[in-house]
Design brief:
The chain is built from 14 helices and 12 strands. It has 360 residues and is α/β, with parallel strands linked by helices. The chain folds into 2 domains: 126 residues, 3-Layer(aba) Sandwich (Rossmann fold); 168 residues, Rossmann fold. Strands 1, 2, 3, 4, 5 and 6 form a 6-stranded mixed sheet that branches. It has a 6-stranded parallel sheet with strand order 9-8-7-10-11-12, sandwiched between helices. Helix 11 runs antiparallel to helix 12.
Length: 360
């Protein structure tokens, strides 16, 4: 619990405003809702449904995940220009076996109890039809189906935004925003990753993929037979790549992977890719350009935020397209300040939140 409390109150992260532990004995719901900041507006972030089976203490792991993810959402929403703070929820359990309608309805009631301080959406382990259920017990749910007044699958613009980030990487490194002829490795071709493959293939990139689920690999190969497959993520990161795209869970860039990473740049959809502070410097020291994850994967939150104002896909897509310009500007700022791109992005986001707090 010490690790949880230190993360909750860390002054260098601005501190979390509120953390709610939710339990419903009848349905078996155990959940955590973490609100990092409401400086820019109501906190907004998805609901993750995950078992944390490999952790010694799954409950503590879930709380730490919620704390880290909610902080990331504050920075993501700030950099995306949204009038929202950062929040995140975690439901503890196996979505394949533990997810029920009753559990989702109970979770929705907990979201409602926060009175609009937290707006939820999809994340790992939750889908559009789940948000349709959750929304039946509260009015602060996004990522619903179009039939229920929502924006549909937010992975559509998440993948589009990551592709815009990759275009910015190409512009910075090679002087052209096209990925044509570039070799891109994608670790994780699930909800976001498989759509990212579509964008890259259409742009003429050479794509290599890996995923722990064979069905996900098979889906990509059925659509794009020319895509190559690596044995696993460990093999993929050692391949000579122009861009490496982590698109699964966080912590992909760490003390083990960075020393053997053979890519020229990293730009992916996964949240919290840097396992700990200092990894961004390790990447820079090796000459690997890092596109900050919370900047390039913001297309999804841009999509669901639009839902709150009457969803229009063209308007949302136009906002997500600006991820290209934002990423280019971060690379410029990093170069001028002599810091890694992750540090430059943090400074910009923190300034926006600080300005909002001063305005009251």
């Amino acid at each position: 619990m010490t690790d949880v409390l230190s993360t909750l109150f860390r002054s260098d992260q601005g501190g979390h405003e509120q953390v709610v532990l939710c339990q419903d004995r009848e349905t078996g719901l155990k959940a955590v809702v973490a609100i990092h900041s409401t400086a820019l507006g109501p906190s907004l972030g998805g609901t993750r449904f995950h078992a944390y089976a490999s952790a010694d203490d799954p409950e503590q792991a879930a709380v730490l995940d919620a704390l880290n993810l909610s902080r990331g959402m504050s920075y993501k929403n700030a950099m995306a220009g949204l009038d929202h703070g950062g929040g995140k929820a975690v439901i503890i359990g196996d979505p394949e076996t533990d997810k029920t309608e009753g559990l989702l309805l109970a979770y929705g009631r907990f979201v409602a109890s926060l009175g609009g301080r937290y707006v939820t959406a999809c994340d790992v382990g939750t889908y559009v039809h789940d948000m349709d259920v959750v929304s039946r017990t509260n009015r602060w749910t996004t990522g619903r189906s179009p039939e229920n007044g929502g924006c549909g699958d937010s992975s559509v613009l998440t993948s589009f935004g990551v592709f815009q980030g990759m275009r910015a990487v190409a512009e910075h490194l090679w002087g052209t925003s096209s990925l044509r002829g570039r070799r891109v490795g994608i670790a994780g071709v699930g909800k976001v990753g498989h759509i990212l493959v579509d964008h890259l293939v259409a742009d003429g990139a050479e794509v290599v993929i890996t995923d722990v689920r064979q069905a996900s690999v098979d889906r990509v190969l059925a659509a794009h037979p020319g895509v190559a497959v690596a044995a696993d993520t460990d093999a993929l990161i050692r391949e000579p790549l122009d861009v490496y795209a982590p698109c699964a869970l966080g912590g992909a860039l760490n003390d083990d992977t960075v020393p053997v990473l053979a890519a020229k740049a990293v730009c992916g959809a996964a949240n919290n890719q840097l396992e700990h502070p200092g990894v961004e410097k390790d990447l820079a020291d090796r000459g690997i350009l890092y596109a900050p994850d919370y900047v390039v994967n913001a297309g999804g939150v841009i999509q669901v935020a639009e839902e709150l104002h009457g969803f229009d896909m063209d308007r949302a897509r136009a906002k997500a397209a600006r991820i290209f310009d934002t990423t280019v500007e971060i690379f410029r700022r990093a170069a001028s300040d002599g810091v890694p791109p992750a540090v430059a992005a943090d400074r910009i986001a923190e300034q926006r939140m600080a300005d909002a707090r001063r305005r009251g």
